[in-house]
Write a structure and sequence with these properties.
The chain is α/β, with parallel strands linked by helices. It has helices at residues 98-110, 125-134, 136-140, 155-165, 180-187, 191-202, 249-255, 272-276, 288-301, and strands spanning 8-16, 19-23, 29-34, 46-52, 55-61, 67-71, 76-81, 85-91, 114-120, 144-148, 169-173, 212-216, 224-227. The protein folds into three domains: 8-61, OB fold (Dihydrolipoamide Acetyltransferase, E2P); 67-227, 3-Layer(aba) Sandwich (Rossmann fold), CATH 3.40.50; 241-301, Probable gtpase engc, domain 3 (Ribonucleotide Reductase Protein R1, domain 1, Orthogonal Bundle), CATH 1.10.40.50.
């Protein structure tokens, strides 16, 4: 008679190649390997695993609430699953790319994950004021935008950020130079030590950079930050051009005024979006730079696939 095998539950807290680190409900961490050729589990996944000596195999990935990922023509890159919010860290210097910011926000909207924008380097008054003004359209759209200085360490700014993170599983995104590693180390005491332990476990003592890592901010394991790898491009090939306006809150608000139900918001007569562009860059109209990003993305997502 076949004996039923008991599977254990766990949380994926790090990944590297085809291997992942799984944390048990008791807080023990161990390496697990995928069952079969392809690794399906990503950081943030709840999994069922089977013990095998001091390691394990992933038998099943439990259903996800969401999956934050980017996709270009060649491949898909998954960041993490089961997120409450995505923190997009940009800085007054170097100047951030509004296109990259918009892409990350669209990817979050597509998965119904709440975005949080944080602008670092409030200690550089002139540059910060300019960058803060560039983010005005995002504040008007209802996105939370917080100021921060990781260099001078304003306690009030840090406290406001910590309050926004409390009780949430938050993925931290940020371009090179924005201060992502500094932020993680500021908010998670011992983050570097945790990374070292994971790297050692995954690569038999050799230092290895994990692609994504999950950190508990508090001892009660209630608040988590997920560090993500840097990226130069953020592809949105998994989104159709016709979906785009619905994932941009400022365009979505005006799209209901269009004469045609299938309006592309590019050239049609009676288009509510076109009518709202540049009405008042400080008011409720659509900011010209936001509309330019829409046009560029629409053209990119309308291209036939290249084989």
């Amino acid at each position: 008679m076949n004996q039923k095998v008991e599977l254990d539950r766990g949380l994926v807290v790090a990944s590297h190649g085809r291997h992942v680190v799984v944390e048990t409900p008791e807080g023990r961490r161990l390496i697990c390997h995928p069952r079969g050729k392809k690794s399906q589990a990503v950081v943030g996944d709840r999994v069922l695993w089977l013990a095998s000596n001091d390691e394990g195999t992933i038998e099943k990935v439990e259903p996800r609430r969401n999956l934050f990922y980017r996709q270009d023509e060649i491949r898909t890159k998954s960041f993490a699953a089961n997120l409450d919010q995505v923190l997009i860290l940009v800085a007054a210097e170097p100047e951030f790319s509004e296109s990259q910011l918009a892409r990350a926000l669209i990817a979050a909207e597509a998965e119904r994950i709440r975005p949080l924008i944080v602008l670092n380097k409030s200690d550089l008054p002139e540059l910060f004021a300019r960058a803060w003004a560039r983010l005005a359209p995002y504040r008007r759209m209802g996105y939370t935008v917080l100021p921060l200085s990781l260099k001078t360490g304003s306690e009030a700014e840090l406290a406001a950020l910590q309050a926004s993170l409390q009780g949430q599983a938050t993925l931290v995104l940020g371009p090179s130079g924005a201060g992502k590693s500094t932020l993680i180390n500021r908010l998670v005491p011992g983050a570097q030590a945790q990374t070292g332990e994971i790297s050692t476990a995954l690569n038999s003592g050799k230092h290895t950079t994990t692609s994504t890592s999950w950190y508990w901010v508090d001892k009660t394991a209630n608040t988590a930050l997920i560090d993500s790898p840097g990226f130069q491009e953020f592809g949105l090939q998994h989104i159709e051009a016709a979906q785009l306006a619905g994932l941009m809150p400022d365009l979505r608000e005006q799209a209901g005024q269009c004469r045609f139900y299938n309006c592309s918001h590019l050239h049609e007569p009676g288009c509510g979006v076109l009518a709202a562009v540049d009405q008042d860059t400080e008011g409720s109209g659509i900011n010209p730079s936001r509309y330019r990003i829409y046009r560029e993305l629409h053209a990119e997502l309308s291209q036939p696939p290249r084989y």
